[in-house]
Amino acid sequence: MPWGLAGTALAAYFGLLVVLALVKAVPVKSPAIQRLRAFFPSWKFFDDVGHVPVLLARVGARADALGPWQPCLAPAPRPWHAPLIDAEATLLLAYGSLLQQLVADVEELPDDADHEDTVSYQLTHHLVQARLALAPGAHYQFRLCLVEPGATPTDDDDMIVSPVYQAQA
Amino acid sequence: VTDLFATPEAALAGVTRLVAIAVALQTVELLLVRRVAADDGVWRWATVRRELAVVPRPVRWLLDAVLAYRGLVVLLVARLAAAIALLAVVHVALVGLLLVTTILLALRWRGSVNGGSDFMTLVVLTALTAATAVPDQPLVTAGALLYIALQACNSYVVAGAVKLRSRAWRDGTALPAFLAGAVHDPGRLLALFARAPVLARIAGWAVIALELSFPLALLDPRACAALVAVALVFHAGNVYAFGLHRFLWAWAATYPALFYASHVIPRAL
Question: The pTM is what?
């Protein structure tokens, strides 16, 4: 195959793309850019193994008698129609993105700001309420840990520990 | 198969049908889990809209109307109807509606519903809107198809390059680590990789090789057919292992454009 100017340009393009992808990028952490990120596609899927956020919660009848910490998000069953529609998997992926947004938002907060005021924290709080299906008056607390994939969270892994809340009627 | 999408008309029709299926499936899913966006749901509008305080008030009113729970359900039904109609009739109004609703849904879910699959759906719909807006301009149609093909190649090459940079991908520990956090029970795959770690290493390198070699699809229709076939197996594996079914359909929508490019680009070289 003759290799003209167009071929050289195409090879150079993909070569440059590889070089740029290999350079460690500085992430843009602006919340506005994050909300509009669909317009700036990133194709860096599964690029590196790092710490992953894990959400745990505990419930009790009284604030001083909460039960053991339990994971809020468990793997979903794999339905036969998963190649077409797997709403539960999509939802779990969206919950995972929410937790990653919370981590990013907390890391970006100024020292004098309260993470409980962030939208990510409040949505995570809603997520905990939805997953626990709480009885009115029940007390609950949640924590966000950053762990190696598959590892069991310990107290040292805590990033956020919520106050103890009481479920409303 | 290699000649199925050799003409711009056939390739455009293929992309249109496949992206319509992708959007229809995405929308059915969102309708099934719509309660998470209800007024007492996880992504309740009253909380999410706080982040839009910076946008002008008329825009906020508009967003309140279409993205609060009731408006959102109407939006999803309209989107599903437009996607189904697009299977029968190709019209810029239908494609445009899918594009606008995809952007609105990304805003509603604070950036994207499902990351990469939303990005690729948006890429395809943007190009398709341009192509259907001026249907009698062959240059615009060809440009739209080549843009989609190039973005598909970009996605694989960038994903492959960043994996190549990662020691965990090179030594075979990345795949089990990602599987450990998968949305479906990874038990059997993890047990397999624990018994034979070399399999995880081979699988990791196979993914990198596939992704980095994908631009070869632009050089020859037979190479394109072979790479698309392997990519479909790869995406099917991702559906099983990671629940990434939306990626399968979003990327499949780009393949007719890739086939078209594999006919056109060699002639330009």
Answer: 0.92
- Specify the amino acid at residue B148: I
CA dist B163 and B206 (Å) reads: 11
Q: What is the dihedral of CA B61, B62, B64, B70, to 10 degrees?
A: 140
Residue B248: closest C-alpha in chain A: A83
Written as six digits, the tokens of B224 are 């394109």
Pairs across A and B, CB distance < 8 A: 197
- Spatial separation of the C-alpha atoms in residues B210 and B204, rounded to whole Å: 10
Identity of residue B123: V
Q: Which residues pair with A60 in a beta bridge?
A: A139
Q: How far is CA B103 from CA A13, B60, B245, in A?
A: 29, 15, 20
How many Cβ atoms sit within 10 Å of the Cβ of residue A133? 9
Residue type, position B136, single letter: D
CB A44 within 8 A of CB B163: no
What residues 148-167 of chain B have any CB closer than 8 A to a CB of chain A?
151, 153-159, 161-166
Helix crossing, B197-213 with B187-195: angle to 10°? 110
Around Cβ B199, how many Cβ atoms within 10 Å? 16
Q: Looking at this predicted complex, what is its ipTM?
A: 0.92
In one-letter notation, the amino acid at residue A123 is L
Query: Within 13 Å of residue B264, how many CA atoms lie on the same side as its CB?
Result: 20
* Backbone CA torsion sign across B147, B153, B157, B160: positive
Are the beta carbons of B157 and B217 closer than 8 angstroms?
no
**pLDDT tens for residues B71-105?**
999 999 999 999 999 999 999 999 999 999 999 99
Query: Is B98 in contact with B83 (CB distance < 8 Å)?
Result: yes
Whether the Cβ atoms of residue B239 and residue A83 lie closer than 8 Å to each other: yes
What gap in Å lies between CA B203 and CA B41, rounded to an integer? 39
Tell me which chain B residues have a C-beta less than 8 angstroms from the C-beta of A17: 154, 157-158, 161
